[in-house]
Design brief:
Mean pLDDT: 81
Distance between the termini: 31 Å
CATH superfamily: MFS general substrate transporter like domains
Structural class: mainly alpha
Number of strands: 0
Largest sheet: none
Shape: globular
Order of helices and strands: HHHHHHHHHHHHHHHH
Helix content: over 70%
Strand content: under 5%
Low-confidence stretches: none
Radius of gyration: 20 Å
Number of helices: 16
Length: 408
């Protein structure tokens, strides 16, 4: 343990501060990803509203990336990064203050959450690019994923147990929504703490330069296609676990317990991978992540039961961080290469990449909404998920072509 701590301290301070802010904010993400969807379902019983919320989130993200690019010319990047974290709590307050969960109200709350993610991800991605080098990016994303996985063990279990106990013991006069309000306060406190810490990194803004372009090198165009495939999967991955568990397994207590148990098994693996893997291992890690996603979706489609959902979640909790450990270092390596080749601001590629993700997310969310409202929720949850996973598998072959060009 001492040796690992010393190894962590051997890296530059800005990288360490960035990782520590990720650790704190990692405790926010499970609440946002899992229990916001559960809150909508509890108060509306309409699965499509969950996806509408997510679609609003995905719409707000690329727009915020664009706004962020202009704001970086006059506002310190640490302040914009902080704003993104704090807005997540404000979004939850906005949604839970609604008297009725209407489509417009849900979309507005989701748009605020999209602003939150946009400011957070846009600045985090730029800082990750500028505080790391290719040789330590596996470690950076391995540790980041490790933090998120540990948070995925503690937070869903604790939050799910709190909501379930509120329901069972008739706390707060039997109003379970009050438990969600307390979770929102918890999110806001964590966000403020992470916002204070980020100012210790002495981060530098990108140089002033044009960042909005529409034509790019062919290597970057390949990266955009891979981003779109990743976005298609994200459109389902963020909402499908919540909907499947609440539909087939149980209430929020089961939701938190299953997520926590599954995350426990992947935490140690993630740390080891981040610590010992090298750039040349990224393609193999990405391929394994894609296969796990397909296997999990196949279990869900074949069984469509509580057992199928549990097996799907187990596969997914392993697959998501494996894909991230491999994908993001490949993305940053491509940015390093094409930014130098084309002589452009690195933020222009971060912005453009987000629009690539958005196209995929729009397809993924749109497909679910169409199936749920005009075919059936059963088809949307059972069969479309496998279809999405198979499409996403094609990204492994795209990643292979990109890796050959950047010589990983």
């Amino acid at each position: 343990m001492i040796a690992e701590f010393s190894f962590f301290n051997s890296h530059p301070k800005p990288m360490r501060v960035l990782l520590l802010t990720n650790l704190i904010y990692a405790m926010v993400m499970p609440i946002v990803e899992l229990f916001v969807g559960a809150y909508i379902m509890r108060n509306s019983s309409d699965l499509s509203l969950v996806v509408i919320f997510q679609l609003a989130v995905y719409t707000g993200i690329p727009l915020t990336f664009l706004i962020n690019g202009y704001l970086l010319n006059g506002v310190k990047i640490a302040w914009l990064y902080s704003l993104g974290m704090i807005l997540s709590g404000i979004s939850m307050f906005a949604m839970m203050s609604l008297d009725e969960l209407s489509t417009s109200g849900i979309f507005f709350a989701g748009l605020i959450m999209g602003l939150s993610y946009g400011f957070f991800w846009a600045n985090r991605d730029f800082l990750a690019l500028n505080t790391t080098v290719d040789s330590n990016r596996n470690y950076y994303y391995g540790i980041k994923s490790f933090f998120y996985t540990i948070a995925g063990i503690v937070i869903p279990f604790g939050a799910g147990a709190f909501i379930a106990a509120t329901d069972k013991n008739n706390w707060f006069a039997g109003n379970v929504n009050v438990a969600y309000h307390y979770l929102t306060i918890f999110v806001l406190i964590l966000s403020v703490g992470a916002s204070i810490l980020v100012h210790q990194g002495n981060f530098q803004n990108p140089k002033r330069a044009p960042f909005l372009f529409f034509k790019f090198d062919s290597l970057w165009n390949q990266m955009l296609k891979l981003a779109a495939l990743k976005g298609v999967a994200q459109g389902y991955i963020v909402t499908a676990p919540t909907m499947l568990i609440l539909s087939l397994v149980g209430k929020e207590g089961a939701l938190g317990l299953i997520q926590s148990l599954a995350a426990f098994f992947s935490a140690i693996l993630l740390y080891i991978l981040g610590r010992v893997s090298k750039p040349e291992h990224r393609l193999m890690i990405y391929f394994i992540g894609c296969i796990l996603f397909v296997i999990g979706a196949a279990f869900n489609a074949l069984l469509y039961s509580s057992l199928g959902v549990i097996l799907f979640i187990l596969c997914l909790v392993f697959a998501r961080p494996l894909l991230d450990i491999a994908y993001f270092p490949i993305q940053l390596k491509v940015i390093d290469i094409v930014a130098e080749k084309e002589g452009r601001n690195e933020f222009s590629y971060i912005l453009n990449h987000e629009f690539g993700l958005y196209v995929g997310r729009l397809f993924g969310c749109g497909l679910f909404i169409l199936l749920a409202r005009y075919v059936s929720e059963y088809v949307a949850l059972r069969y479309a998920l496998l279809f999405i996973a198979v499409i996403h598998l094609g990204g492994a072959f795209m990643a292979q072509n990109i890796s050959r060009r950047i010589k990983l």
